[in-house]
Design a protein that fits this description.
With 670 residues, the protein is of the alpha/beta class. It is built from 24 helices and 26 strands. Strands 2-1-3-4-5-12-13 form a seven-stranded mixed β-sheet, sandwiched between helices. A seven-stranded mixed β-sheet has the order 15-14-16-17-18-25-26, with helices on both faces. α21 links the parallel β22 and β23. α15 crosses α22. The longest helix has 18 residues. The two termini are 48 Å apart.
Amino acid sequence: MTNFQTPAAGPDQARRLYVFNGGFLTQHRLRRILHLSGYRVSLGRPGAGDLIGIWGNSPTAHRGIGIAARTGAKLVRVEDAFLRSVLPGRSGSAPLGLLIDHKGAHFDPAQPSDLEEILATHPLDDTALLNRARGAIAEIQEAHLSKYTGFDPQAAVPAPGYVLVIDQTRGDASVTASGADRNRFLEMLFVAQEEHPGAQIIIKAHPETTQGHRPGYFTDADTNDRVLLSSDAVSPWTLMEGAIAVYTVSSGLGFEAILAGHKPRVFGQPFYAGWGLTQDEFPVQRRQRQLTRAQLFAAAMILYPTWYDPHRDRLCSLETAIHALSAETRAWRADHRGWVASGMRLWKRRPLQQVFGRYKPISFQDDPARARASGKLWMVWAGKAQVGHESAVRVEDGFLRSRGLGAELIPPLSLVTDDLGIYYDPTRPSRLEKLIQARRVLRPDQALRAERLITAMTRDALSKYNLGGATPDLPAGEKVLVVGQVEDDASIRLGAGAINTNRGLLEAARAAHPNATLVYKPHPDVEAGLRSGALDADGLADVVADNADITQLLGAVQVLWTMTSLAGFEALLRGVHVVTTGAPFYAGWGLTEDKGDVPPRRREDVTLLGLVHATLIDYPRYFDPVSGMPCPVEVVVERLASGPLPHPGLANRLLSKAQGLLASKTHLWR
């Protein structure tokens, strides 16, 4: 994905970028993006062929501008991209991307910028580009992303019917570049009241003002019985949805208002004004082109910025940046208030801290009354949930877990949280069920993402544990794989139904396929001697595939029989016909042959892509062991395929061996 502006020479032939602002030197992420973009941040006196980097129209920008005038060096203006981070930079968050402009500043109408040139001259008529833009707009809206994403999308906003007036920070470069000041903001507020008599006016404070970093142009003195100054950390998209009109000087929220379907009144001259999508009080006369929302977005978000992938440490597409920001934002929104956890074994606590304790450490408390009294959000390991835990969020391993067994104390790369139930318990609704129902119809971008995920997983032979192993030679003809399970597992106890033993499953499969080659695959935990459920299958199965690679077996058979195993879901990804005798989460959606008692609430047909999107993209939380950050599923797929991955410490390895000796007494350690 290349940008429209003239690219730099590239990291191997980096052009020197002389800077006179300390931020270029102290902010690692800023320097790294510039380096990857082909610039080498330098100190000293530039020559005529060199570049001078300045940060927008910051208070220090005049230094670089003055030196450029004296030396003939060219200016490069650098700014944060329009999707930046969870919290403002002044709160310590690093940027997700940069705007690197060789012509001007995108917010300064005094001269055209690279962005304005794209908007004015780029054809912006490529179908694939505009489809990407529409998909990204929808994804940003659905995930409630904005420049700063540190807010609760569920936070209440006023009843619909209000007028939204957007405040900005005092001295903001886009405000001063537009020739605006406090009087302009007061004029805007007056016009909003005049044009909407009787309507409530909501002034949306800037996040940096809310967090005490910089004052805004409006104060409490500007409010009255009709005008409310809102400092609540709410979703801009929710605010836009309830607004009947939007007023702004030059805020980035004006751009988002356009994407939300508004035609905002603009009292400044921001980059998005002048293209037929705004009502401009101070038009920029050279901007005469009429654009669609998708064209404006494609220019400003796909072609113009330089996006950074914090997990792979490289430049990336907008879509990859959105996925990264979505993962970090999801974690912050769920975790920043802190968790108290119950039913967590000692070895699990460190991985749980990595995933859920990034913003505030988890406290562990097994007493339900004390956990509730802590005032924190409460989680419990799903298998340990009991009476008294009804209000706790259930936690369990995800479906792309690790390279190695959980019973061997290998830390997980994914975990699921469920506020309704848990995916393996069909006796009650789960959050995964709701997500699957919501993905009955996918947007084109969602379907493409799910399709690419299936391709990557099948290409790299990925499964839950990724153990590898040999594959037995199998005869020609119909081959049926029967997957064994741990018979005291919670999914068997809650969801297996009438057939709840490995022997019973084998017998049912043999009765249904008397002439097929029956291949029995024992559960890895049982094979490792870590869980009970061993079975002498020689009299029932034609082949016992001990320590075989499940993904290779799935490529060699036509049918899979299971009670509730995740292997059934993995078989669906590979086009194998799946027969369920219980009620696993993937049964009941029209994708499997269900012989068990599947809950009647699952009577909707869902596509495989919809099931995959809900199960692998929407439901789990993923942790990247390399960057130490929350990440999207694609990063974990790459780590599982090619590493690097974490390994259990010495204490975990010793404990795992002890567990093998106590496989019949798992209640002592699970």
